[in-house]
Amino acid sequence: MGACCSKGDRTFDGFILNGEDDFKESDVGNEDRIPNGDFDARVRLQGSCKDLSMFTQQGRKGINQDAMTVWENFTGEKDMFFCGVFDGHGPSGHKVARQVRDILPSKLSHAFKKSKTSGNYGSGDVDEAHNNDGNGDFDNKDGHDENTGHNSFFSLWKTNLIKSFKEIDDELCADASIDSYCSGTTAVTIIKQGNHLVIANLGDSRAVLCTRGNKNQPVSVQLTVDMKPNLPCEAERIRDCKGRVFAMDEEPEVFRVWMPDDNCPGLAMARAFGDFCLKDFGLISIPEVSYRKLTDTDEFVVLATDGVWDVLTNNEVVEIVASAKKRHNAARVLVDRAVRAWRCKYPCSKIDDCAVICLFLKPRLLLTKSTSERSHQIPGYPFRGLTCYSRSMSTEDRLTVINDEITTDSKDCIALSNVARVDSIVKVPRLETGLNHRRKCK
Fold it and tell me: What is the pTM assigned to this prediction?
């Protein structure tokens, strides 16, 4: 769920396409585009160009609460991209998602310029901020750079991302024009310049990289961890703050976050912007920030909300995008396939909103249509007492876990692929409680 990218009367003739035939039928003329962002960045809310494909589609649950944005020449730096997708939930989730979509890139741009001017590359604030998030070290999970702690690009962005996420959450709390007490949004973002890729994740949207295997086949590499309440490190933090984590009898595979004394709101994620009814009980807005050094074998990155990941595997997503006949249609083709999968797998369920960004890292190469049989998950996150459910799995293939027996002896977290999708929240708290919390934020 997220904010819709509305189509307006404004038109834009697209980026310079260098004569590529792939883009003759591009729908960039219909996109809703902001002419320029901070420091003359080129902002796109939908559409396509030679390096990019974006598409969102409303589901059957009401207003489209998915939002997305791409800033080219981010911070005024050549060849720097900011990409983000945001999945709103709750009564005002679409407003929260749009607000974060519009504010986050601008805030990061100014923070980057300020840090760069003051020469704060590789400052000690990074380690301090990371150690305070209550989780293990995710920095080197891809194994491509053993010295990420000394990478000034990563260090600078990690500090600014953590700081900016916190500032935006504080601003949401104080903003009386948006009811974010029982509404919120996830966020998964990437910042790419040259062969540097910084990923920040908050919630259960996901980023997946396509790289080439030994036989030149497309292989998926999951870049983010789905921040679900039943992850041991997340569950421990929530319970330490007096919040509760359990699944309802009618949804035994879906663990939710609940207030200490009320069976609400039942949030199906452990981190998010907004949702201030749970911020005193373990829900946080601190993103997991990681780094990957891109190589010549890396092809593209897909950012998508869980409306896609709930019905398609990482490998399926990579294969669909890699085999798209025209790059500018890749995101639309992926969303179409996700919608068809929803109708086939869950004919009685309401199709979720879907938002997709495909960022291509190099000129188009011919890739084989067959994908790797296995998805390369994040190394170092073994299955230890975690729930891993997939609606496409057979019953005997599922891992059996009892919520009360979630192990907390390890700080490791893993990526949960294909977690069954349900509404993000199931009950709205009392209004007067929200008003009291709003006064506390001011």
Answer: 0.75
CA distances from 268 to 59, 153, 217, 345 (A): 18, 33, 35, 21
- Measured N-to-C along each axis, helices 152-174 and 431-441 cross at an angle, to the nearest 10 degrees, of 120
pLDDT over 70 percentage in the chain: 67
pLDDT of residue 411 exceeding 60: no
Burial class (CB in 10 A: 0-12, 13-18, 19+), 428: middle
Q: For the chain, give the mean pLDDT.
A: 77
- Other C-beta atoms closer than 10 Å to the C-beta of 99 total 25
Question: Which residue, among 27, 293, 173, has the nearest Cα to 13 in the 3D structure?
Answer: 27
Measured CA to CA, the distance from residue 109 to residue 340 in angstroms comes to 38
Strand partners, 245: 257
Q: Identify whether 239 is part of a domain.
A: no
Q: Is 195 within the bounds of a domain?
A: yes
Distance CA 223, CA 233 (A): 18
Q: What is the CATH number of the domain that holds 360?
A: 3.60.40.10
**Domains identified in the chain, total number:** 1
Span between the terminal Cα atoms of the chain, in Å:
28
Asked, for residue 344, whether it belongs to a domain, the answer is yes
CA–CA dist 198, 287 (Å, integer): 12
